[in-house]
Amino acid sequence: MREEWVIVDATNIGQFLMGVNYWPRAKAMYWWERFDLDEVKKDFERIAEYGLGLVRIFLVWEAFQPTPKQVSVENLKRLIAVADLASDTGISLMPTLFCGHMSGVNWLPEWVLDEDCIRQRFPVYTGGRLHFRGLKNVYTDKVISNAQELLCREVARAMEGHRALFACDLGNESSNCFVPPDRETARSWLETMAGTLKANGGGCMVTFGMHAEDLEEDRALGPGEAATVCDFLSMHGYPFYLKWVDDPLDYEVLPFLGAVTEWLGEKPVLFQEFGIPSYPVIPPFLKGDESDRLRGRLWDEETGAIYYRHALERLQQEGMIGAVAWCFGDYVPGLWNHPPLRENPHERFFGLFRYDGSAKLAAEVAREFAGSRKVRTVAMEVRYRRPWLDEEKPEVFYLDPQANLKRLYRKYKAWTGLSAI
Fold first, then answer.
1. Which of 238, 262, 370, 411 is the most buried (most CB within 10 A)?
2. Cα–Cα dist 364/351, whole Å
3. Looking at the domain assignment, is residue 355 inside a domain?
4. What is the spatial distance between Cα 345 and Cα 349, in angstroms, rounded to a whole number?
C-alpha cells in the first residue's frame, strides 16, 4: 500500500502550534451518544478566543463502530458537523481513532473483549459499564484489524478534503490497551492503517499518540516504528507520573521526552499532551474519601500557571512543532460518579477552564503565549544542537530503556545547566 501515499514534510508546518485536547465539560467521554452541537460550538468559540488553533478530539471506538462490520453513519455525520464548526471558528482538528485508553480506563467495543485472555492492567468500559476482562490483540486478530481498516476508510472518506482537518491520530496511548508481539507486526499494522487513511483521505497527515511509557519500556511500537508511516511523531508527558523524576513539576521532562522521541524516530515531534490538575476553587469540593483516592497531587492555579508558562517556553525552544494542552475543561459534578472520574478523581480537574466555563490562570498564560509566540525554529534543525546525544546510538536504546532514559536525562540536565536528578 505504501506506493499509494506519501509522507508530508511536517517541518514545513511553520509557526509553533498551540492546541488543546477536547472533551465537552458536560459530556466527557459520553459526548457522541449525548451529542449537543450547540455545546461544542460554544466550546470551540472559547478555544478560538484563547488562541488555541488546534483541537484534538477522540472517536470513542464503541460509538463509531458498534460491530466489526458496521460504522455508525450518524456519528460520522456528527464528526463532519464538528469539523464544520471548527472550520467556521478558525481552528483545525486532529481526530484520534480507536480510542482506546483514556484517563485510566480503556474504552473499547465489546467485541474486542476475550474471556480467555489475561486480565488487563486497566478496566474496560463497554456496554454501559466497567469490565475486568481480557482483550483480544488488535495486532494479531484478523477480524479486529479488518474492522479497524474499515473504520479508517470510512473516517478518511468522510473527512477527505475538509479544510479543518490537520491530521489523523491512530490512537491514544495504545500500548495501555494492546502491545504488538514484535516490531514486524507493529510496522505491518501501521502500514495498513496509515495507508488506508492516506489513500482514502486525500493524503492527510497521520500521527500516533505515544506516551512516556513507550520510552520507559520496549513495547515493540516506539518512535522508530511509528516514524515509518507517520508524518510527525506525538509524545505525552507528565512528570508527576514518572518514578524516575524527583520533582513532580519538573517541566524540563517535557522537552527532554520530545527530544528523545525525535532522536529515536528522526521525525519532528508534536507534544500532544501536557498539563496539571488543580484544586477546585468553586464548589463542590472533594470529599474526604475522594481525596484519599487521588492517584496524584492537585496544585493551586497559581502553580499551574507557572508550570504552563515554563512548559510552553521550553517546548518551543527545544524545537517541538507545537504543544497541545491536557485538557479543555474540568468536568461538571454530574459526571463525577461515572467512569473514569469516579475511579480517578484527579482527572476531573486538568482543565484550562473550570467546569462552569470560567478561565483558570493557566488558560490566560496559554492565551498570552499564543498571542506573542514567534515563528519557531524547524525541529529537524534543532537536533544538531543536542550535543548530549552526540555519542548515543538509537539502535541500542531499547536494550535497557529505563536505565538509558534516566542516564540521558542526567546528561540533558547537565547540558542545559540544570541540577541533575
1. 262
2. 12
3. yes
4. 8
Q: Are 207 and 7 in contact (CB under 8 A)?
A: no
State the amino acid at position 98 in one-letter form.
Answer: F
Question: What's the pTM?
Answer: 0.94
Nearest to 236 by CA among 208, 264, 217: 208
**Number of structural domains the chain divides into:** 1
Q: How far apart are CA 63 and CA 334, in angstroms?
A: 21
- Which residue in this structure is represented by grid cell 468522510? 158
281 inside domain: yes
Give the CATH number, domain containing residue 109. Answer: 3.20.20.80
Residue 397 is assigned to a structural domain of this protein: no
List the beta strands (DSSP E) in 53-103.
Answer: 54-60, 92-99, 101-102
Whether residue 124 is contained in a domain is answered as yes
Q: What is the model's pLDDT at position 298?
A: 94
Angle between helix axes 301-317 and 361-372 (nearest 10 degrees) is: 30
Question: For residues 222 and 214, what is the distance between their CA atoms, to the nearest angstrom?
Answer: 6
Which amino acid belongs to residue 240? F
- Interval 82-114: pLDDT, tens: 999 999 999 999 999 999 999 999 999 999 998
The DSSP output letter for 120 is: P
Range of the domain at 111: 2-389
Find the radius of gyration of the CA atoms of the chain. Answer: 20
